[in-house]
């Protein structure tokens, strides 16, 4: 048995049990060891005088009354008794757990884990412990069919076999010494079963550094490869033709757009390899800047490629490029195309008869050969990682690279996170664009909102409705969306066709629904947060977000950006009854500004860094334990060390770094 052995080989598990863990991508013993908890329950007994109202804790005491069970409906009951801690009498209640009555005897010592209610001097019990523990209990992210107990049992089985000791150290001793980091085996053990908070913090510090260090090593190696392979392409574009194209545009560019385009064109002409991030708020006009850069490449005889996450976005960009440049040969390439059509497109790309190509990941597949690729643009950078950039580079003679994101990111963070890319920012909206009117309403006002929506539907409006977000539970997200879809279908039965979009649908089903919505066959689209960034539905003028206080400001702003894409007045309605001051403040800020950069700063102050960029709608890479904003100091140190190592010509020969090489030679895991 070794790290790559199936978890089915562990004591207490078998093939059937092991199969359940495949849902959370645990196949091998190594996968199991490296599946870290996202939080811990502290099961050390506490005095009630130490507890804040609503805090979960273990409370020990002496049972002073017998347990009594009251029934009040089908399978609904409450078990209650009193216990004493010192001189304090505590009321204890357990709901729908009548079988605990046998474990509670007057005069006995008891340890109850539950939620403390200070005003009532009461605890709502969650479980009874055999005894108060002195350790912290891990809590893991799960899916349906796997319980915390089953996962903890499997991990304990791996540790009892000393499997964690098989993990090879993947950081050189010089770094372990320099930063006083725990060894990998010790850190992994402490991540799952820390003796105390201090040991957990040391383990977390080690694992965070490991993640961020390897991420930075991959970025620095890619940067070094860019320099080593060639200095880049000098795209000698035709300035007169480009100026003529500016004059033909049906709108004028904003100053921010002009500045960003100037920076991009200067890079392209310089002969230095362009590696630039173009960030701009929702609706700021990034796509037209990218299109003009592609046109500049065309005037110099180079092909350009625009890669987007989904087929529907590829079709949208293909249509807009075709409208903007009717005289050019523009192709679309997606994995869903029929084989015969795809062969024709591939042949045209290879021969050079295609000037611009738009597509999904199909653009970097082995079968694609470019005639003269000079510019690569990726839309929504978060979907494409270091590996995709490397593959694109290999498709041409080190083509210029431009990445676009609608997530406002502080400049210093963008530079560090994206490997010292140059950053261009579009921080103003095009003239004439009507700001989305945002309103915050309580749940009790929904009838009024629905009545107003009915009147807007008669004016040919289309509506997005986002169902509430439940953390760590995709199945509950879906259940909420289904219930909301049924409710709205009944309410608007005579006024509109209501459809449902969620993450469990196949990609072609999602695309079909979005296409029907775009073509006005659907008037109300109920969705979880899977609505694609950038999909343009000009007649969608209302965005209704249920339980909006569950979302961060950046995510609310991204969702709001799905409307207001035409010339009609658009509205975002936030339905929320926030219980916290920060929740109320978030709702108020959303109604006061449409500036995504201001909102990103406010999010940072209100919620702390950890939650802002942790969503899939973010322009930043995701990690298992590290947080790219909260752990910025570690990220910056990792970048500094990685840059120093990679810049040293002899680093590969140095024995201190030998342990790094096998990990870097693998496909990088931060795509």
Automatic annotation (TrEMBL):
Identify the Pfam families for this entry: DEAD, Helicase_C, RecG_dom3_C, RecG_wedge
Question: Domain named Helicase C-terminal: which ranges?
Answer: 445-605
* Keyword presence, Hydrolase: yes
Name the Enzyme Commission number(s) assigned to this protein.
5.6.2.4
Domain Helicase ATP-binding intervals: 267-426
Single GO MF annotation = 3'-5' DNA helicase activity
Q: Which PROSITE patterns match?
A: HELICASE_ATP_BIND_1 (PS51192), HELICASE_CTER (PS51194)
What InterPro entries does the annotation carry? ATP-dep_DNA_helicase_RecG (IPR004609), DEAD/DEAH_box_helicase_dom (IPR011545), Helicase_ATP-bd (IPR014001), Helicase_C-like (IPR001650), NA-bd_OB-fold (IPR012340), P-loop_NTPase (IPR027417), RecG/Mfd (IPR047112), RecG_dom3_C (IPR045562)
Q: Name one GO biological process term.
A: DNA repair
Q: Which reaction does it catalyse?
A: ATP + H2O = ADP + phosphate + H(+); Couples ATP hydrolysis with the unwinding of duplex DNA by translocating in the 3'-5' direction
Indicate the enzyme's highest-level EC class: isomerase
Sorted alphabetically, which keywords does the UniProt record give?
A: ATP-binding, DNA damage, DNA recombination, DNA repair, DNA-binding, Helicase, Hydrolase, Isomerase, Nucleotide-binding
Function according to Swiss-Prot or TrEMBL:
Plays a critical role in recombination and DNA repair. Helps process Holliday junction intermediates to mature products by catalyzing branch migration. Has replication fork regression activity, unwinds stalled or blocked replication forks to make a HJ that can be resolved. Has a DNA unwinding activity characteristic of a DNA helicase with 3'-5' polarity.
Q: Which family does this protein fall into?
A: Belongs to the helicase family. RecG subfamily.
Spell out the protein name for this chain. ATP-dependent DNA helicase RecG
The source organism is Streptococcus chenjunshii
Q: What is the lineage of its organism?
A: Bacteria, Bacillati, Bacillota, Bacilli, Lactobacillales
């Amino acid at each position: 048995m070794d790290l790559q052995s199936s978890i089915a080989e562990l004591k207490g598990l078998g093939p059937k049990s092991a199969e359940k863990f495949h849902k959370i991508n645990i196949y091998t013993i190594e996968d199991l060891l490296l599946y870290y908890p996202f939080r811990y329950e502290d099961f050390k007994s506490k005095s009630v005088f130490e507890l804040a109202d609503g805090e979960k804790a273990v409370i020990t005491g002496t049972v002073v009354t017998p347990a009594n069970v009251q029934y009040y409906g089908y399978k609904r009951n409450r078990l209650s008794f009193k216990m004493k801690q010192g001189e304090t009498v505590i009321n204890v209640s357990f709901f729908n757990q009548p079988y605990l009555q046998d474990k509670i005897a007057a005069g006995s010592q008891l340890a109850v884990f539950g939620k403390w209610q200070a005003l009532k001097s009461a605890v709502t019990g969650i479980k009874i412990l055999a005894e108060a523990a002195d350790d912290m209990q891990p809590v893991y992210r799960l899916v349906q069919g796997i319980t915390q107990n089953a996962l903890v049992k499997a991990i304990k089985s791996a540790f009892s076999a000393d499997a964690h000791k098989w993990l090879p150290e993947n950081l050189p001793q010089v770094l372990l010494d320099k930063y006083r980091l725990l060894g990998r085996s010790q850190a992994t053990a402490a991540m799952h079963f820390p003796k105390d908070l201090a040991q957990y913090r040391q383990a977390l510090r080690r694992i965070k550094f490991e993640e961020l260090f390897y991420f930075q090593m991959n970025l620095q190696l890619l940067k070094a490869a860019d320099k080593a392979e060639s200095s880049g392409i000098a795209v000698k574009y035709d300035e007169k033709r480009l100026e003529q194209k500016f004059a033909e545009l049906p709108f004028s560019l904003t100053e921010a757009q002009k500045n960003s385009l100037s920076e991009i064109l200067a890079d392209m002409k310089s002969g230095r390899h362009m590696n630039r991030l173009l960030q701009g708020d929702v609706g700021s006009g990034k796509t037209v800047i990218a299109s003009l850069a592609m046109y500049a490449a065309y005037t110099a005889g180079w092909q350009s490629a625009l890669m987007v996450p989904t087929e529907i976005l590829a079709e949208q960009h293909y249509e807009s490029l075709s409208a903007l440049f009717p005289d050019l040969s523009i192709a679309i390439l997606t994995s869903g195309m029929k084989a015969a059509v795809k062969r024709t497109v591939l042949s045209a790309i290879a021969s050079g008869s295609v000037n611009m190509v738009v597509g999904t990941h199909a653009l970097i597949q082995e079968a694609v050969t470019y005639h003269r690729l000079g510019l690569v643009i990726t839309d929504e950078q978060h979907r494409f990682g270091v590996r995709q950039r490397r593959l694109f580079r290999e498709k041409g003679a080190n083509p210029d690279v431009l990445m676009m994101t609608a997530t406002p990111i502080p400049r210093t963070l963008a530079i560090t996170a994206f490997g010292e890319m140059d950053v261009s920012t579009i921080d103003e909206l095009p003239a004439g664009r009507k700001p989305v009117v945002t309103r915050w309403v309580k749940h009790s006002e929904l009838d009024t909102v629905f009545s107003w929506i009915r009147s807007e539907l008669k004016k040919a409006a289309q509506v997005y409705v986002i169902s509430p977000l439940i953390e760590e539970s995709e199945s509950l997200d879906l259940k909420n969306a289904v219930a909301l879809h049924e409710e709205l279908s009944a309410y608007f039965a005579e006024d509109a066709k209501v459809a449902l979009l969620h993450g469990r649908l196949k990609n072609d089903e999602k695309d079909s629904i979005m296409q029907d919505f775009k073509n006005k066959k659907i008037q109300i689209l109920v969705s979880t947060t899977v609505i694609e960034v950038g999909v343009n539905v000009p007649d969608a003028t209302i965005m209704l977000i249920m339980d909006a206080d569950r979302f961060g400001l950046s995510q609310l702003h991204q969702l709001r950006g799905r409307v207001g894409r035409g010339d009609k007045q658009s509205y975002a309605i936030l339905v929320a009854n926030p219980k916290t001051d920060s929740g109320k403040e978030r709702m108020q800020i959303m109604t006061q500004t449409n500036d995504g950069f201001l909102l990103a700063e406010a999010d940072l102050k209100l919620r702390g860094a950890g939650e802002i960029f942790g969503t899939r709608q973010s322009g930043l890479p995701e990690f298992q334990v590290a947080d790219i904003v909260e752990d910025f100091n570690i990220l910056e140190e990792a970048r500094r060390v990685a840059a120093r190592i990679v810049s040293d010509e002899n680093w590969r020969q140095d024995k201190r770094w030998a342990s790094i090489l096998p990990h870097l030679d693998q496909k990088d895991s931060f795509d």
